[in-house]
Design goal:
433 residues, alpha/beta, Immunoglobulin-like, seven-stranded mixed sheet, six-stranded mixed sheet, 19 strands, globular, binds copper (II) ion, metal-binding, L-ascorbate oxidase-like, Cupredoxin
């Protein structure tokens, strides 16, 4: 996709996937100001688009740059459901235009890992490879954050934060219900090298709710929502929930991201929807592992220098294994925004957090007849009356809706008729006089 800054992008998605698989498309790099329901995160900003149905995305291309679009459902992105999204500027507006003799749409490449089998086959036994061996500490090639300068002017996101969140993560040896039944197949009974560790943030696995909180806020069961202030003992027993933080609209938020780095030598690229953030600090502390308490102590002792002018602006940033990355953003875009590791394997089984920015009254209205979804559980008290009684109640409802001569609410029909007759007489009377 090649568009110009300020264009309105309209994309009709027809889901022709087999096996009833749902889909949604995220426009990675577009902040969806005023259109958060077009962000394409299934079950957070919209319902999954069911098979053999279509959905129209419509939003403004207001973030120039080289982005991409991709499925935000299951492992579809890793299986190839993605593409380029370039929002172009005039050469006069593009700060990099002097670097190119020709800046043409055909001069683009997009790179991906490609497997000759479905990603799901790789899922249970995934392995990690280090993709960037160059930018390592102690090498001549190291580029520290202090040497990277944003071309964008400083803004509110670099102010003193109103709130600070510590998010630490790793792969944990926990009896995740996805992999291990503690009574039959506990992880501690598995032989070394065959463990399936669970990627979590603050020892919580994020799950997606049955209805999207952005458009059906009050349909999300409250008992599904948690964060580490409402759930305890998650470092000992498996915890999963719709992992959500509430951020007051307008706050400056600092997030201290810590890759504890004990289990594997793996870095995690974290992506925030709805915003660009400033990367104010990043370092690898200890290759064999670091804790949130270690990072708090370093900060207290003044050993973490923050870059508070010209800090790089990103929407995705890696967190070094055994280290930290500190980001700041100004929460001025109300909505429900996903914050997650961008490795599909990790995000899909819970390495994610949901940021609620503002109250539901601050969220822009979704378009007319925006699709809805949710739980249709059979619950006591909502049981339909059986047999004839039920059919009769349906008939009664239909008659009330469509009208019938054989209505059992005839009294009210008659009174309506009387009122109409009086009204007509009244009109006739005044016309005659
Ligand atoms: Cu990850």
């Amino acid at each position: 996709m090649q568009v110009c800054e300020g264009d309105e992008i309209v994309v009709n998605v027809d889901n022709l996937l087999r096996n009833g698989e749902g889909v949604s498309i995220h426009w990675h790099g577009v902040h969806q100001r005023r259109t958060p329901y077009m962000d394409g995160v299934a079950q957070l900003t919209q319902c999954s688009i069911p098979a053999y149905t279509s959905f129209q995305y419509r939003f403004k291309a207001d973030t120039p740059g080289t982005h991409f679009w991709h499925s935000h459902s299951g492992l579809q992105r890793a299986d190839g459901l993605f593409g380029k999204l370039v929002i172009r500027q005039t050469p006069a507006d593009d700060p990099n235009s002097h670097l190119y003799d020709f800046d043409l749409p055909e001069h683009e490449i997009i790179v991906t890992d490609w497997l000759n089998e479905p990603m799901m086959n790789e899922f249970p036994a995934h392995h990690h490879k280090q993709l960037n061996p160059l930018n390592t500490k102690g090498s001549r090639n190291l580029i520290p954050i202090s040497n990277v300068k944003s071309l964008a002017p400083d803004d509110k996101s670099l102010n003193d934060p109103d709130m600070q969140l510590y998010l630490s993560f790793d792969f944990y040896k926990v009896d995740s219900t996805l992999f291990h039944d503690p009574s039959l197949y506990p992880i501690r009974a598995i032989e070394m090298g065959k463990h399936l560790y669970t990627p979590q943030v603050n020892h919580i696995s994020a799950i997606l709710p049955p209805s999207p909180p952005l458009t059906q806020y009050y349909d999300v069961p409250q008992n599904l929502i948690c964060n580490e202030t409402t759930r305890r003992n998650c470092d000992k027993e498996y915890c999963e929930c719709v992992y959500m933080y509430k951020i007051p609209l307008g706050n400056v938020v600092e997030m201290v991201l810590i890759d504890e780095g004990v289990t594997f030598d793996a870095s995690h690229p974290f992506h925030l929807h709805g915003y660009r953030f400033r990367v104010v600090a990043m370092d690898r502390v200890n290759k064999s592992g670091v804790t949130a308490d270690d990072v708090r102590r370093l900060d207290r002792e003044g050993l973490i220098a923050r870059k508070l002018s010209g800090a790089p602006l990103k929407d995705t940033v890696t967190v070094p294994d055994g280290g930290y990355t500190i980001i700041r953003f100004h929460a001025d875009n109300p909505g429900i925004w996903f914050f997650h590791c961008h490795i599909a394997f990790h995000a899909e089984i819970g390495m994610a957090v949901v940021m609620q920015v503002g109250e539901p009254t601050d969220f822009p209205y979704p378009p007319y007849k925006f699709p809805r979804c949710g739980n249709f559980a059979h619950t006591r008290g909502a049981e339909p009356p059986p047999g004839e009684e039920y059919l009769e109640s349906i008939g009664r409802r239909n008659r009330a809706r469509y009208g019938s001569h054989h209505t059992d609410s005839g009294a009210s029909d008659k009174s309506l008729g009387c009122i109409l007759a009086v009204f007509c007489c009244f009109c006739a009377f005044f016309r005659l006089t």
